Amino acid sequence: MPKKEEHEYTRVEKSILPLKYVDLIEDVFHGILAVSLLGIGIGAFYYSIERIFTTAPFFPNGMIQGINDILFIVIILEILRTVISRFTDGVYQLDKFLIIGVIAAVRHILTVGASLTLQTGKSDTAFERAVIELGLNALIVIALVFAIFMSKSAHRNR
User: Fold this and answer.
1) Rounded to whole angstroms, what are the CA distances from 122 to 117, 125, 130, 144?
2) Residue 98 contacts by C-beta under 8 Å, 6 or more apart in sequence?
3) 67: closest CA among 117, 110, 100, 119?
4) pTM, two decimal places
5) Mean pLDDT, the chain, as a whole number?
6) How many whole angstroms separate alpha carbon 34 and alpha carbon 39?
7) Alpha-carbon distance 1 to 139, whole Å?
8) Which residue ranges make up each domain of the chain?
9) What percent of the chain clears pLDDT 70, i.e. is strictly above it?
10) From the CB of residue 69, how many other CB atoms can be counted at a distance below 10 Å?
11) Does 89 or 102 have the greater pLDDT score?
């Protein structure tokens, strides 16, 4: 019978603890982080629902705050998904972090845009700063989307 091929990559143990114990400790810690993120997401969802109904006036302040809170919860869940995928793939995936960055930047764009729309009597300096912030966040979104495109095309060419 032919002998099974050995893996190309073998792990070399050079630590005080055997590598299997280090991996176990790391998995337990990632599990605790995942449960914590889930708890934070549930708490943020509860707080968001409460805040939507208590923010006055509901239109537009409550709706804008609700969208902001929902995007924050999406960010938490994407981070949770990244931690969970660490268990299945064994590594953190770049695409997931780039997507989290896009969501965070879009969330910030919406927040700044809403504050520009709702607030009257802003000074010229504050207005210019907000417009510059919007422009920089738009550039960040474009750069991150381009990075996602590059990452996806690199995976397809393998």
Assistant:
1) 10, 8, 10, 31
2) 144, 147, 148, 151
3) 110
4) 0.79
5) 87
6) 9
7) 59
8) 14-91, 93-158
9) 91
10) 18
11) 102
